[in-house]
Amino acid sequence: MPLTVQWWAVWYPGAEPGGGSYIAQRMLASKSEKDALGGTLFFNLAHYILRPWPWILVGLASLVVYPTLADLRKALPNVDPSLIGHDIAFPRCCDHAAGWIGLMVGGLVAANSSTILTHLNWGASYLVHDFYRRFLKRDDTEKHYVRAGRIATVLLFVLSSSLVFVLQTAQDSFNIILQVGAGTGLLYLLRWFGGASRRGAKSSP
Predict the structure, then answer these.
(1) Dihedral of the CA atoms 69, 54, 108, 169 (nearest 10)?
(2) HSE-up of 39 (CA within 13 Å, CB side)?
(3) Torsions phi, psi of 167, nearest 5?
(4) Which of 41-45, 96-100, 172-176 has the lowest mean pLDDT?
(5) Dihedral-angle region of residue 19 (phi above 0 means left; psi in -120 to 50 means alpha; beta otherwise)
(6) Burial of 15 (0-12, 13-18, 19+ CB in 10 A)
(7) Count of alpha carbons within 13 Å of 24, Cβ hemisphere only?
(8) Closest CA relative to residue 8, chosen from 196, 188, 205
(9) Could you tell me the residue ranges of all domains in the chain?
(10) What is the mean pLDDT of the chain?
């Protein structure tokens, strides 16, 4: 029951109940329906089966190398003791992977860049297509809307970057995402039924 409630009650990027814009972006960019289906299935396998294992292995190794917080404090004598917590064991263990540091940094940069670009494209499409084009300026050229999308992208980047002066830790941003997305799962599921009922009404004589 807790897992079921967690699934429908909380929205989190990339794991929207019933599918969301993350998946839709990738499906709409596919060459055909078959490619979209194959890409979505591969994403789920890679995301939920392949990707977590490096984190799990490093986490298990940290329990052996640094079993207590006292061991972490000895290994990090120059770090503020108030910052020493169980979560710091993961980056500390990464220091032992001397030959893989470059690959890890490259992976982190790529992951960060792809996430930022996805959110900027996502937000700009909402602002232009779902708000600006629908309510403010309906009948203009595609060139105009492309320019509006570029402006919206820049504004979103500036506004989102300014949040670094408000948030103190990464946990704060994570909490905001969970608070904004809590309870929206039912809406994500009902939209499919709403769309199906509208299509049925249109097709009926």
Answers:
(1) -30
(2) 15
(3) -85, 140
(4) 96-100
(5) left
(6) middle
(7) 10
(8) 188
(9) 109-166, 167-197
(10) 80
pLDDT at 7 > cutoff 70: no
Cα 32 from Cα 30, distance rounded (Å) = 6
Residue 49 is encoded by which pair of tokens? 């089966």
First to last CA, the chain: 42
Is the alpha carbon torsion for 141, 142, 147, 153 positive or negative? positive
Indicate if the alpha-carbon torsion angle 14, 19, 22, 27 is positive or negative.
positive
Question: CA–CA separation, 192 vs 188, rounded Å?
Answer: 8
Say which residues have a Cβ less than 8 Å from residue 129's Cβ, sequence separation at least 6: 145
Q: Which two tokens stand for residue 72?
A: 């972490």
- Dihedral angle sign, alpha carbons of residues 83, 106, 162, 25: negative
What mean pLDDT comes out for the span 83-99?
A: 80
Structure tokens at 178: 């969970």
CA–CA distance, 117 with 64 (Å, rounded to integer): 38
Q: Enumerate the H helices of the chain as residue ranges.
A: 2-9, 21-28, 33-45, 52-65, 69-75, 89-94, 101-125, 142-162, 170-181, 185-203
DSSP label of 134: I
The pLDDT of residue 137 is above 60: yes
The phi and psi torsions of 12 (rounded to 5 degrees) equal -145, 135
